[in-house]
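REQUEST FORM: STRUCTURE PREDICTION
Request ID: SP-0412
Submitted by: Lab K.M.
Chain count: 1
Length (residues): 550
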Amino acid sequence: MKEAKPYIICGAVVLLLLCLKLNTWSASFGSIEEFRGATLQEDIFYPLMAKSINKDKRLAIKVDGAAIPNQFDEIHIGKDKKVLLSLDFLRDRLNLCAFYKDDDNAILLYNGKESKVDLITEDNIDYVRADKVCEITGFTCDVNMDTYEVSINSNSNRSVLPSKFDLRDYNRVAPAMNQGNATTCWAFASILALESGVMPRTADYDVDAMIEFNGEVSGDNAGGAFTNALAYLLSWSGPVNSSSSAVKLSGNDVDEVKHVQETKFYTHNDINDIKQAVYRYGGVSTSIYANVSTTNLNKSSYYNASTNSYCYDGNNEPNHEITIIGFDDNYPASNFGVYVPGDGAFICQNSWGKDFGNSGVFYVSYYDTNVGSQAVSYSRIMAPSYYDNIYQSDLCGWKGQLGYGQSNAMAANVYTARQGEMLRAVGLYAIDKNASVTVYLVRNYDGTSSLKEREQVAARTFNEAGFYTIELDHPIELQSGEKFAIIIDIKVPGSVRPVAMEYKVSDSDINVNVKDGEGYISKDGMNWESVEEKANGNLCLKAYTTDVEE
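STATUS: Completed
RESULT:
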């Protein structure tokens, strides 16, 4: 019998590996049965099974019958067999308002009801249990582990947007700051919007670092716009904590505390979409026209100081940025200093200190000429550990577009792997609504003729304009020193130049360096032109990797 023991142990190991390979869990995840007198413990078997499923992205996801991509580990099989949903999934896929209450709990708002749910952290991502979400909403979540399919149905119980919502009610707005006489409203508005997406967890991000390290000439009177904030955040230059400001401003490296991987853009015509964004993601930065030259609207005929309300109905272009922190559909039109054709206003916070308005807060009518224009929502704010490395050549961000006079074009950026890495995702701008993107990869790039040897690795469509991270269908291992090309085939209805690019608009764009990139553009995917030579610029096309596990 002693000689037979190694064979028995070997047989048990083979059987375990076979079970992991076949992975035939039933809809109820099955049960652990005894074999050859031994029991494989659930606390060992289930975590191994869950890890295999999650790592290989085996889960197929449907919401109300529509298949959706399994990205960012948004849906997860827990170590205890439960289906887990990230807060991003609740916001993006189920249109719920979900945010942190503290380190251990999240808050879900559903049709006016506030519910507290436990947070479960696995692989450095915070989740809530799907069955708890279903209890609150009346949704259903069906799991079939024979086909690896998770199907969530709202059963016509989708949450209805409230008529009034104020982020201050949930401790998600930082106190008003004061830009003084500086022309840095864009930075204050962006930082406030970003912080509200993380609060009430601690979020104290430094404005000065954004002003100094956004890729353009820095300084309090250099001016700027939302694109400067995007260049700073999307390049992983920030945000940094205010406590680290002096260190970064002195020229030393400071680790960023979050990575912005997705933003959504809105216009003045997107009032309802902006309300949804505030409800689901937090503050939205936007532009208005302030018709006074000082940091005080009290002298403006468009401002009613007694009600802290503002509505500009002229034709001037916007010249000031603020942050939308809520909305009230029933805010009386009679509260405004000018005639307004209907009720309703955004609740906004300014950067003129606490003495302006109600501790920095005022109301801007839905009928204001410019409110909602150049609006930005920070819709995916991630831990900096999710990806390890970024490849990019557009430190100044989106400055213009390239194309061939039609709605579609192809673009390619070439990079060299700095070490052995797993290619996980690409990042790009969708310059307008309803953009569709197919992503390809070329391994061992060797001149533009090799771009025809591309392999499709992902495809997505985006309803809103914005910056998006597209995760590959499956991670791909790159070898140290390997040249690889990321290719996109992008179509933006109504556009004649659908590809975003960086180029030197003025002398203030000090970090535009066409020598740091190798980008190409093509009309047909066969003939390619150098972006650096054709347009003296760089493509806004990033790549994200993780280090290879030892």
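NOTES: Residues 19 and 49 are 9 Å apart (CA to CA).
Reviewed by: T.R.
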